[in-house]
Amino acid sequence: SHQTMSTTKLVIQKTHDYSAFKLDEANRAVKTAHVKRLKESVNKNPRIAEFSPILVNEEMTVIDGQHRLAALRQLRMPVWFIQYEGLTIDDAQDMNSGQKPWRPIDYAESYCRRGNKNYCIYVEARKKFGLNHDILTKYLSVGGHCTGESFRVGNLVVKNKSASFQLMQKLCDFQSFYPRYNIRNFALGFLVFAQREGYNHETMQEKGAAYSSLIGDGPLPEDFIRSLETISNK
Prior knowledge:
Radius of gyration: 24 Å
Structural class: alpha/beta
């Protein structure tokens, strides 16, 4: 599709017919706050709509600009758009990386809507545990491996959902006596520690609560593994 994009003669068209546009399921969910900001900008300078037209494919599916479309529709203003044949959601991800960067949750929701169960699990885990992206991917890919890049291109693999969720729940159990349970280094250290043979979570919770001051802080996951060992030997 990149080929056709550069060679096609592009014509900016204008319409008041909002129903002409279709939304792509796989695109990001529309964010109300973002639409509100765009409405304010367009109100200040109505030509913005003309300067940054919405991009659609041959079927009038909005590939880039769904927030602009929502804002213009709410303002009852004309929509300026360019039709590219063969434009896809992947092009939109590329284009958007130059604007409002896609966050991990945007990628996850997009892949989930396209039927990738691994990413639906990510969305569920994020809602349930509220852990940050880095911790989530490490806990979800236990038994495997997931880098930032492979997450973005759709390669997150959840090997064992129930094991991952149990580990995240155990991590969150530290919250009552160790408020920094959700920092990266503690979470990654605990992940190693909790998977060791003979780890007893109930005992660890009791000892952890009694000796929480020993958990301390350190620049590396290994520092936390050492302090957890110290506590468990009490």
